[in-house]
Amino acid sequence: MAWRRLAFACLFTLCWTLSSAYITYIEVRYPLEGERSPPGAPWPQPQVCEQTDELLTLDPAKPLFVSELQSCDIVEEAIKRYTDLIFIDKGGKVEPDQPRVSNVLITIKSNDCEKYPHPAMDESYTLEVNAKTSQLTAETVWGFLRGIETFSQLVFFPDEVNKYYLLNETSIEDWPRFKYRGIMLDTARHYEPMSILKKNLDAMSYNKFNVFHWHIVDDQSFPYESIVYSELSAKGAYSPKHVYTQKNVAAIIEYARLRGIRVIPEFDTPGHTISWGKSHLELLTPCYGDGVNPGTANYTAHAAYEMLNPMLDSTYDFLEKLFGEVVEKFPDEYMHLGMDEAYPYCWQSNPNISEFMEKEGIDDYGKLQEYYTTRVLAIMKKLNSKYIIWQDPIDDGVEASPDTVVEVWRNFTDVPAVAARGYEMILSSCWYLNYISYGQDWKTYYECDPHSWNGTEEQLELMIGGEACMWHEYVDGTNLLPRLWPRASAVAERLWSAKEVNNTDDAMYRLDEHRCRMLRRGIPAEPILNGFCGDYEEGWEEDTDQCSLSGISLYGNTDINKRRIVIATVLFVYIVQIFM
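The structure assignment produced for this chain is given below.
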């Protein structure tokens, strides 16, 4: 009966094809390169992953995870969350003829339920999945979070007929390549609702990102509700509804904490501060656009008021009070101070600034920026806070404090110059995801490696990671998530997986599977190529009319599904005839 077994295997394979992620060519004369990944292929790819052909099953009716560490909210919430994600289809069931994973024992060696994620957190873990003993072991709760995400990705349905929860016998040893793996969102140009921010944090956790860089205010609006200066948002936000209250901020920090994600706020100065002036005009520099009168514009060089006024002590008093509040409300060790695009044209037009520079012995505007930067960094040291800045002051020759972290955003070729000055770096220049193009631009992001430059081993170690940036000039709650995902997933694997994991042709299939996985989890991730996500597509309702053939269930009685069924029938009959 070999032919029957083979026919069943072919039908099984066909069912899997119809029920899983599947991408296909742009045109038939250009077949896809690379090797298709099996179901349950994790993203980002673990450092060491060994799997056998032995299939195991899970029973959704029985508790899956058992933790040795008790009374830890991070662990308890994650177990609830991932139990729901793994058994996301309530029609799924245990495969009676396969060995069952009775439970996964969670061991956290430190036996410590750390409160907040931090720059030095250990995210490594090991995962052993077999019929005898399955165990997830990590040094910290942060490694546990990364490991349980990987476990959840190993689980798959072989077909939509019986919906058995299956996974392969697996052994994984994993750790991140870079410690800083971030996503930057700009909520000043377009306000993002809380539900979107939280959903994005979910997506970040599915991709093992660990930093939410929150560019929360800018020229266009000031949506952060300050306690000490409530008028900043009262007059600077788009409207009273477009404000992140203290309760909102705390909720985002808590939501991120439970997913092992740091929240680093950015209050960009001395530029990008027009919204500050709506309630505190005295903070901004009066520009002399007509050469005579203060507060006059010279478009397009400068507006009537721009840039924080660097010569007034009251400017720094204001910043110390505001930043003191921010440092208190955001528990991370770091705050992003911006300092990019500090165009000097308004300063140049102001005779009082010129007089101040002469008095202080400041002979150019780069040195004026250095004066401002030095005073602001002194404030941060006084507040016992660490800081990140964009690369602009360093490019202008500013001598920042040696412990400054510099974000390289202009050009990748700027990295060696920053490294030569001994600063730790974050790379974002090749990952500005707000720029869009037709086609598979994720490959460009995937191929950008933070270590692809000629530096000494010591200099390469200064690169602590990178982040994908999404500026919001043309982005709001309607398109943030599909524009960001799964393109940001390419950045996630580059920052987590080994440098040698760099084959875009092979990665394409795993990324497509991961995209469909995110789609099922409620993230409206856009497609990367032609194809479909098995029996699930965004917008399909559970009660949609179904058509079936030999138990194969497909939603939607469309022409393309009819063609698939015809092809399936012909293929099956053909195989049977051959082996009869």
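Interim note for the steering committee: The two ends are 9 Å apart (CA to CA). DSSP finds 18 helices and 20 strands in the chain.
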